[in-house]
Amino acid sequence: MECKLEVWKLSHQLALDVYQVSKSFPSSEKFGLTNQLRRSASSVPTNIIEGQGRQYKKEFVQFLYIAKGSLEEANYQLFLAKDLNYISNEKYKELSEICIRIKMMLYKLIKSLK
Length: 114
Description:
The chain contains 4 helices and no strands. It is mostly helical. The two termini are 27 Å apart.
């Protein structure tokens, strides 16, 4: 399965990156931050593709807003992981910049659908 939207492609890559980087988190975080971060990051492309499959634009927009919220959650959890020294400042900056790009793309897509 693949979606043609660039925002979906980038958010899918973010989810893959989050899964990769969170492999090195402490085992004590398996059911904590690791799980939360993975769920919020994977929720972004999930909501985009689910919204795209809906019948009405208004529904699609609602799912895009949910994706945006999940993106903000993932970005904070990455910040927390950085402050807990689970990821480097450089890796946080790289992933956070991707989050910002996705956020701008979601904003533009929402605006185009309204």
